[in-house]
Amino acid sequence: MLKKSDLTTLFNIFQANVNPAMLKFLSDDLGLSVKSLKGFGVGFRPDKHAWVMPERSPRGDIIGLVYQIGRASCRERV
Questions:
Q1: Where residue 74 falls among pLDDT bands split at 50, 70, 90?
Q2: What pTM was computed for the model?
Q3: Which pairs from 14-17 meet CB under 8 Å and 24+ separation?
C-alpha cells in the first residue's frame, strides 16, 4: 500500500490531466455541476481511461483513490 504522501502526489498528477472540457463532459454524465466536481477534486488516469476521485479520511488526507469509468464505477484502493 502506498503512503499518504504518495497518494497525494499521484492524485495531483491525475488532477493535472483534466481540462475544463473534460470536467463539463463528466458533469453532464453524472448530473453534477462543474463547481461541485472541482470542489470534490477529480483527476483522470489515461492508462485506465478512468476518472479518479480521492477517498479521504475524516482529517481530509487522501487514503485511497476511486476510479470511475463512465457510469459504471469500480472502487480500487491504491
A1: very low
A2: 0.79
A3: 14/43, 14/44, 14/45, 14/52, 14/65, 15/41, 15/42, 15/43, 15/52, 16/43, 17/43, 17/44, 17/45, 17/46
